[in-house]
Amino acid sequence: MEFGDLKNLVVMFVEDETDIREALSSAIEDEFAKLILARDGEDGVKKFKKFKPDIVITDISMPIMDGLEMTKAIKEISKETPVIILSAFSEKERLLKAIDVGVDKYLIKPIDPDELMDTLRHVAQEKFSIGDIVEIGNGYQFDKNKRVLIHNNSIIPLTKKELLFISLLVKYLGTYVLHEDIKRSVWTNKNVSDAAIRTFIKRIREKTSKNFIKNVPGLGYKIDTDT
To answer: Span 133-223: which CATH code?
Structure first.
């Protein structure tokens, strides 16, 4: 996997545990123009103001100021700056709150550096690329301008709701989209059951492949980007 599109970006990583901060930063720091490290949310806000990073990666549980409080402060300064939250599965309730403060992506711990880099690449493509074609992997592409899903140069026929759903997963490519996000974006908060969503997903899988959409029960769905 090439990450050349990240070489001109400044990224900030906020993590209060020294061992994790040093280990993950050493694994990914060579991929960017600069990697800024912060030890907690308060330190993160100060360094955000000073260095103005293009993308922020942050743990959700930290002393002094947690990842959500920091994200809220950062979004008040720069609404368009992407923020990626790293969270344990047990922190689901806090993840739901992350929707309200404008978090762009969610990654579930333990964090795999390759998965993180994939997510960063997708964020960079979404936020900083002017192209309309998103390369998903496994022969799939999504045309953001025409709003069509393409597989091996052939358009896959999808309903309006299916396209809304795929558009949402493409926006969050490489990470899970929470059930609450799906209900709000696709069904505009109408009372839709989890069973109805599973049936909906099954129809999309029948049009694509059984592994095209992955899920974590009780959390959400994402597109399989493995190549």
So the answer is: 1.10.10.10
